[in-house]
Amino acid sequence: MLQMRPGCECCDRDLPADSPDARICSFECTFCSDCADGRLAGKCPNCGGELLPRPKRPADKLAKFPASTTRVFKLDGCGVQP
């Protein structure tokens, strides 16, 4: 089950569970669309995987299986892999 992390790892922007701006890789690294499409050019800086829109969890399931409240944020921002 997806963790649905609450914020962008690069800029710490809030990304609620229903946000259309959340992007994830296959390891669930989470970024906002601005960082993912801009500075990261669609590539996860952690694993090199592609960043795709995060699926939305239906409201009734979100109530039973809530999104994560654990933030992952890189104080140095996002480094881009060479």
TrEMBL record:
Pfam families linked to this entry: DUF1272
InterPro entries referenced in this protein's UniProt entry, alphabetically: DUF1272 (IPR010696)
Protein name: DUF1272 domain-containing protein
Origin organism lineage: Bacteria, Pseudomonadati, Pseudomonadota, Betaproteobacteria, Burkholderiales
